[in-house]
Fold each of these.
Amino acid sequence: MSGTMAAAHELVIIPEGMIADLLTRQAAFDAVEAVFAGMASGAAVNFPVVREALGHEDALYGFKGGFDRAGGVLGLKAGGYWPHNLERRGLINHQSSVFLFDPDTGRVKAMVGGNLLTALRTAAASSVSIKHLARKDARILGMVGAGHQARFQLRAALETHAFEQVIGWNYHPEMLPGLAAVAEEMGVAFRAVDLPGLSAADVIITITSSFAPSLMGAHVSPGTHLACMGTDTRGKQEVEAALLARSAVFCDEVAQSITIGEAQHAVAQGLIGAEAVTPIGAVINGTHAGRTSADAITLFDGTGVGLQDLAVADAIVKAARAQGLATIVPL
Ligand code: NAD
């Protein structure tokens, strides 16, 4: 037997029900901003995404993993979409969990509920884009979409920037009161508009599951920042390709943006090439100027990457340990 002692090792478990109390919107924002910067500098890498139809319960299941060398965060989010959960079991249809590993040894370090985490990290991404790309004098926030994610998007945007008014359009108008309630809860007036009415907005977040564009060039004024968050699969589309092509386009990760993100359509139609899409981390790092004029339309194509999940899960584990709330299993 060698004289080397195995170091004590622990697994931290943070169940879904604890995430709301442990993860502040500010912590999610800081984690996502830092990891976007790391991705642009090459310090953090997303691994190829695995996504499979299970042939069981009509479920889609997959893994999004990555390694942030600078942050020392290694892991994956496993989960997907079980379309019959709600009707059959009263559970939400999207289900996921994050697993973190010790990058020095490969031993599992943490298991963290991934459902609320996903909504908060997605909202943090559009907020990061608003901070770095919107005009500082932006006053009116436009929303396209009023589903589950839209509420998180709206809350995070209102906490990031001092918007004075929210205007919103949704394909299913009966869903808009849910969004209005969030704005009003945050003390900001909400007004439902038609699509042309969105031209009053300084920032527009799109967060729908649409497969055809809703937001056209004529609906957007010069100087607007667009955060396009709904398109995360081949075929989905929220914004007219010609509008994207005449915008300054930024993204979380270029490879995803041009294949499964909003930019896929403009690229497929030959309107732009991959070189027209800039990782927002370059703006955060100061290696790209970002918005260069008050009249430019900037567009952030947020497709959602595994490193966002891992960075936020790591922040949750740290918060739980600091507050003495982590369930720790010695291994
Ligand atoms: P949801 O089902 O709760 O809401 C769907 C929204 O899309 C509603 O506003 C609905 O009215 C709208 N919609 C549906 N059909 C439409 C159509 N034909 N035209 C225009 N609008 C239409 O979904 P959700 O959980 O809020 O998710 C919204 C989108 O965000 C999905 O596409 C989801 O995959 C995506 N998403 C992206 C990320 C990311 O990181 N980028 C993360 C999570 C979810």
Amino acid sequence: MGVDVIRARAHAKINLHLGVGAARADGYHELVTVFQSLSLHDELELHVRHGTSAGAGSVVNSLDLGGTAGGVPADSSNLAWRAVDKLVAVYRGAGVGDLPMVDLKLRKGIPVAGGMAGGSADAAAALRAAHAWLAELADPVPEADLERIAAELGSDVPFTLHGGTMLGTGRGENLVPVLSRGQYHWVLGVSSQGLSTPEVFAKLDELRASGRDLPAATDTAALNRALLSGDPTELAGCLVNDLQAPATSLRPGLRKILTAGSAAGALQGIVSGSGPTCAFLCRDADHAGEVAAELTDTGLVLTARTATGPAEGAHVVPETF
Ligand code: C5P
């Protein structure tokens, strides 16, 4: 018989560069972004319920969030659940035959609604786990099918599937690798309340429409050079996020957190993606530990966590949680 439990892990991302163009007809914004994955990750288990039959419906019987993920849906609207069903549809189309039901267990290590692609990472982990399961039952579908499903599920899902350091264009789903030397050390200032990504994009449109001079940052040449140098001080001068102005406009408290990170000695602080998590680049692991401790002491953040980047893409792991 096949494997009963498959575990997969997927990592958080930050945008070292996030240039946001005008809104498109489909509501998405044209991006020029450089993603980097971080050591922070979520884990997903796929439990195969041998002896059951899913018929023609969803193979997912349940989604267990372990009580740790407030605000994350535990039903078929969850991206991980949808990812499994979408991949199953491809395998069914290829004639896989009757499938048993599965239970999903998700353990969140990535802040929820924090601008770090936590939901996207769960979808990527679900794709890897479901692919490992289904590829035991039928000819494996090509990687291109996983990439297509990932892009359908969300703009950040293709990157969380791949990991590393990548340039993203389009709505973020067109990816090419970017060379990055060494490991960078980050402190993540996590807020208790998430921010809605669509609201932050809409706020940027509104600020631009009201005449605020917020041009789209499209040039990543200096960042690419800094990443090749492997020098965090050089990288610090190249971090750009066009969503920082709207995120701080919606959540003015973020300015205090960014100032507190600088006062604690961080090389540079930046809002992560659409926020509200603030990412602080540090010189090394010891420095990150000091900055995290000082930021925690300010009481401005829920937690301050250290992380390194780049990290891997979503992958199946042998060990338990
Ligand atoms: O693709 P995803 O579902 O993660 O995007 C969430 C929301 O973020 C979109 O509905 C849209 O409002 C906004 N978004 C955008 N432009 C992008 C990516 C996301 O406007 N390139």
